[in-house]
Amino acid sequence: MSLAERRERQLAHDRERRDHLAARPVREPRSREELKALAASAANRFSDGQTDELLAWVAQEFGHLTAVACSMADAVLPHVVARHLPWVDTLFLETGYHFAETVGTRDAVESSMQLTIVDVKPRQSVAEQDAQYGERLYERDPALCCQLRKVEPLTETLGGYEAWITGVRRDDSPLRADTPFVTWDEKNGLVKINPLADWTFDQLIDYANEHDVILNPLLNDGYPSIGCAPCTRRVAPGEDPRAGRWAGLDKSECGLHT
Predict the structure, then answer these.
(1) pTM higher than 0.85, yes or no?
(2) Helix axes 3-23 and 100-112, enclosed angle (nearest 10)
């Protein structure tokens, strides 16, 4: 394919996204009480998973008041969701501390898949945060750094949706072993869906290979769990997949799912 043909294909892809966004119906989110009741009903209905059936229900019930959270360790989750909800809003937490490979994965996903990237940014730039709290806050108070650069921005963004979909899996860590497929997210006030909860890491990779889904190259370089660059190291064979996150610190979660 020539450079001109590639350029035209990209322009067509971007036009299709813009046309879809312009045609979306506008609707205000329902009340917390209504959404909480939906979550309780769905938790019983989808207690055994059934990824495709669950996501078909999400597309019908919430439409584009649904957001997908994606760390860009891979694009499997948005790919699975977009089969039921094309051009779904896909939230990327732009912390300012990502690996170059993660930013590259984000850009490749946006330019090639039927989804709409929403960059979720903190109120402060890294430089502004350094000026207020001192440099390398992630070393001195990683919980506060995550709160400022991940948790608060996501909470503010989720206020415009009725449901959010995450890629949390039970085999991620012992703390996630009981992850439900559907639950009520009291902190954010909306329905939380974990359609890959019972998937293993191997199933994730198999799906990506079968469907030619983009993977962050760091996955093949010793990083089975990818977060901000200063707080993520390689994992040795046989180690817990999340052992490389906040290594040496009494911390294993960023606060988004707790």
Answers:
(1) yes
(2) 80
